Amino acid sequence: MDDFRCPPESERAAVELSFRAYGAGDPVLFLPPAATRADVWLTHQVPAFVAAGYQAVVVDNRGTAPSPAPAGPYRLADLAADAAALIARLGLGPCRVVGASLGAMITQELAAHYPGLVHSVALLGTRRRTDVYRQLLARAAMARALAATPVTDADVAAQLGQMFGPQTLADDREVASMLGIRSRRITAAVWAASAGLSIVPVTWTRCTDTSV
Predict the structure, then answer these.
(1) pLDDT beyond 60 at 207
(2) 3 state DSSP class of 177
């Protein structure tokens, strides 16, 4: 395992992204969701890709430690420029890119504006645009999080409905597993990130009944 810091190649991407590389072979870059460390990929994806003969490169986006957190707001263009600078500096391109949630949106921006650096993409939980309905949901989620009151079943149901599709929600074991998380720190910024809303992050605790 190698641990590096890559200085950006453009003034626009004026951060040094923290990343780690595992294995050897054709590189695959993993871009995580908002406010999520690169470690999110280490349990399942990295071992599977390394075993399949790829080099897995995981990165912490700007604003997520240990990468720097310069003053915001951050645009998708900025985050994509960070990823492009890292790919170019390490000579990874054109490489495969896997992104989840915000990471998937960064991946789309990266492929659209730096096509020479991208071999192919896998997009997990992404979106094409922010529509009026989802802007409403994001504003409601932001207001709900800022209220810092106990989480209700309605809150949990609304969040699950946004995060998962009908097939997952119809799986009782999967849903029970998600409801079994007794405490989780959730930021209002993450709830509203998909609508591009700039808010002050606050945290609150979710406590749910583990019985099914």
Answers:
(1) no
(2) helix
Tens-place pLDDT, residues 88-141: 999 999 999 999 988 999 999 999 999 999 999 999 988 776 778 878 877 887
Tally helices (H) and strands (E) across the chain.
8, 8
Q: Is 50 helix (H, G, I), strand (E, B) or coil?
A: helix
Residue identified by tokens 């405490």 is 183
Tokens representing 168 are: 């997952």
pLDDT (tens digit per residue) in 24-68: 999 999 999 888 899 999 999 999 999 999 999 999 998 888 888
Quote the tokens at residue 124: 């997990």
Q: Where are the domains of the chain?
A: 2-124, 132-205
Cis-peptide into 66, omega within 30 deg: yes
- CB-CB neighbours of 23 under 10 Å: 18
Whether omega for the bond prior to residue 94 falls within 30 degrees of 0, making it cis, is yes
Backbone angles phi, psi at 97, to 5 degrees: -130, 130
Between CA 61 and CA 3 the distance in angstroms is: 15
Determine the CATH number of domain 2-124: 3.40.50.1820
Render 65-102 in DSSP notation, one character per residue: TTS---SSPPPHHHHHHHHHHHHHHHT--SEEEEEETH
With a CB cutoff of 8 Å and minimum separation 6, the contacts of 46 are 22, 23, 30, 56, 58
Decide if pLDDT at 189 tops 50: no
- Computed from CA positions of residues 170, 173, 176, 180, in that sequence, does the dihedral angle turn out positive or negative? negative
